Amino acid sequence: MFEKINNYLACLSTDLSRCQRTLAKSLNEFNFECIGSTQTDDEQVIAASLKQFSKLISAIEDERDNMVSINIQTHIYND
Predict the structure, then answer these.
(1) What's the gap between Cα 47 and its chain centre?
(2) In tens digits, what is the pLDDT along the chain, a chain of 79 residues?
(3) Which of 3, 9, 32, 58 sits CB 3.0–4.6 Å from 43 for a disulfide?
(4) 41 half-sphere exposure, CB direction, 13 A CA radius
(5) In this structure, is the dihedral angle defined by the CA atoms of residues 53, 54, 59 and 62, taken in order, positive or negative?
């Protein structure tokens, strides 16, 4: 029973990670449409903040992948 639950949680974690990485990619690629030739200072600050947030989300997902991998390896070796 525990193995089924563990596999289910690992699967959910993988799905969540994929969605979070998609969000991070979208935030990283975000650009304002300008009414002119250049972005305003505020638009530049917001775009830079979204890129930083994207990096943070990616780092969190990297750690989530590491935790799931360690959990799976620990479970395999302890059986």
Answers:
(1) 18
(2) 777 887 788 788 889 999 999 999 999 999 888 888 888 899 999 999 999 999 999 999 999 888 888 877 776 556 5
(3) 32
(4) 0
(5) positive
